[in-house]
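ingest -> fold -> write
write: protein_1
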Amino acid sequence: MREASIPQFFLYGEAPRTVGDRFLHLETLDERSRPANWNIRPHSHRNLNHLIHVRAGGGEMFADARTTPFRAPCLLVLPSATVHGFAFAPDTVGRVLTVSNGYLSDQLGGRIDAAGLFAKAGVLPLSDDGGLDDLLARLARELAWTAPGHSEAIEAVLVLVLVETLRASRQQQADSPRRAGAAAALVARFRGLVEAKHRSETRVETYADELGVSAKRLRNACVQAADTTPLRIIHDRLLLEAKRLLLYSNMTVSEVAYFLGFDDPAYFTRVFTRGTGVSPRAFRSVAG
């Protein structure tokens, strides 16, 4: 996708406009996601950073040309100018905090490493989000009224929110070697099963059941450890076998499809073409 084709919004669905140095906005996920059927197409904000607290539900985040699954409770961190989009599970619950670059640098720069916190997009799992949920509720109240000390209270609560985010980031860094090791071990077992059963089984759920995990956990492990999805691993192994059969056997394309466990040769042709860029017949013709 060309950068020029990616829409830029002030907030999602709004036309770009200049924001002040002290811009701060808080809203629920429901406000913009429900009208968009819980799917936010890729876009960017020139000067706005997002911190999204997901309290219930989950989905997928598209950022930095990667798709990352997430589930509650977690925080989604999105720096300004990052092209991003979401596919939320229906009725996901949370809040979206939007802060301008100017607010972070001018108002909070001396109190917290906001630049480091928003250095890259990411998903931060939370072990307990009760405290953060209370802080964001307090921030929403402070933003809605003009009681004495209004501005000072907003900044104080915002600092606490960013501190909680920073701590979640540090905890993720401390846990990452253990999590990466567990994910890699699960993916290795999955690849072994695919190697043994790729001709008879193509359903991710069946592999997950045999591994004793949920399909979601298997997907998360594959994304984390292999930067791909379980279905892509299954299809890649099938494509490798298909290429071998097309090159070194006299089977027709339909026979190759049935041999590899496809019920429909047309579906096999679509999978092969999507994975290689050419149809099975074209592949055989060019390779031959």
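write: protein_2
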Amino acid sequence: MKYRNKLLIASAVVLAAMLAAAAWAWIVLPTGAQVPIHWNINGQVDSYGSKAFGLLMAPVVVILVTALMMALPYFEPRRAHLMQSSKLYATVWLGLLGMMSLAHADIILTATGLYSGSIKLPLVAVGVLFIVLGNYLGKTRSTFLMGIRTPWTLSSELSWAKTHRLGGWLFVTLGIVVIVTTFAAPKLLLPVILGGVLGLVVVVTVYSYVVWRGDPNKQTGARPAA
């Protein structure tokens, strides 16, 4: 599949860098040190883990993400469509690598005292990821494992295309709102993100059904009359 070998190399490079950083932190941190592994919405550490768990958690997730993304095409019934949606596939893969790299850096820098920690950078990264995903969402072909998968988008190419175009705009809008809220009203971030995602899900689900109803070429599963 297009980009897959390059993405595998990117995963290997990211994993190597993460393990090197973890090895450095392991030496710097004292035995028995507690490592921050979670921050609340105000940017304050609210959960700690052992040195091994804190330093190896993100690299293990990267390994699992890489294995999952590598295996995805083999389980996709519409593999040709997935191949035609390679930009979205690559964006999801790289986006997950980027988020885990950022989380790993936050953990190590905070644990070693080089950085006081801030919730703004990860949230801005989430907003940017929404914008990038939205840009490619409207250009994807129907697949069972990626995209906005409702019974109606999966049984109507028209519903899939129109729903993903709408979903793309909504993702971009939500990403912009998340970034603006991060700086303008950080205390409202949680309701904004939760409300935005919930609203997006409801809108695209209803819209996919409306478009499906009006598609004369939709698949209904009904048997033809004898």
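write: annotation protein_2
The helical segments are 4-28, 51-75, 79-84, 86-111, 120-137, 157-184, 189-213.
The longest strand covers residues 35-39.
pipeline exit 0
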